[in-house]
Amino acid sequence: MKKSIFNRTKLRRTSLKKARVIKAPVHVSIKKEELRKGIYILPSLFTCGNTSFGVLSIIASINGNFIGAAWFLVAALGCDILDGRIARMTNTTSMFGMQLDSLSDLVSFGIAPAIMMYMLVLKNMGNPGIAVAILFVLCSALRLARFNVLALNGKTHTHFVGLPTPASAGVIISFVLSYELLAPAEYSLNFKTIPILMELIPTFFKVMPVVIVILSFLMVSSIPYLSFKKVKLTKVRTIELLVVLIVLIILIIVYPQNVIFIIFSAYALSGLIFYVPWIILERKKRRDTERTEENVM
């Protein structure tokens, strides 16, 4: 009995040694995985650039350089557009990228614009000004959190629910860039400005706290906003759309600050303008479905 037990333990030890010696098979797909990891880095670099420009904007706002702060956020907007496009083009969308993008957007399009507006407009208001700045940041965070939750559900949405955070920040950024043109005498009402708009900018400056509050509530609202994520500008199917794009590009080149301000403001208002017809259509659809269900029964 002792010999048999000894032999069994000896066999087990030898089998364990052999098992340790056996090497795992080397797969050829390692190179493909490494290549894929390299592709994932590309959109993440643009997302990190978004965050970096947001931090630079905050520093510029603290130093009183509001024009520099606004242009840093324009660069952040460019990075935000590119990282999503590159991720979709290279098929490298991931949960990590989505979470990193949301955190970057909170810094660049939530905290940075709030600090810029506080230092430029809200500081003189005292505690109400602080409350408005905090409201904008909180609504930005809530908007981004809701976007992530909707994305996790796996449902495909043809529109944004609430005003997107970059678009809300875009209204503030473009306003600061347009307001810059009123400061130096040589820039006022020249070929780079639209006279009618420039006359309204001082009034817009006075009501800016109210505008920030409205933008905050639009972000957390359920108002649908048009999504341009699936629009492929490389495939323009109509001549009319091509002409509109050419005219828009020319206007941006000639009146850069003013046209960007008009585009972002029009987009923010578009949700409110089309919300009422959208509600009417939704109610009509519900009534039609209820009627069809009643007829079937």
Write down the overall geometry.
Answer: globular
Low-pLDDT segments: 16-30, 184-191
Order of helices and strands: HHHHHEHHHEHH
What class do helices, strands and sheet pairing give?
A: mainly alpha
Strand content: under 5%
Main sheet attributes: strand count, strand direction, barrel closure = 2 strands, antiparallel
Rounded to the nearest angstrom, the distance between the terminal CA atoms is 81 Å
> What is the CATH C-level name?
Mainly Alpha
Number of strands: 2
The CATH architecture designation is Up-down Bundle
Mean pLDDT: 77
Quickly count the domains: 1
**Overall helicity:** over 70%
Strand order of the largest sheet: 1-2
Number of helices: 10
CATH topology description: Four Helix Bundle (Hemerythrin (Met), subunit A)
Radius of gyration based on Cα positions = 27 Å
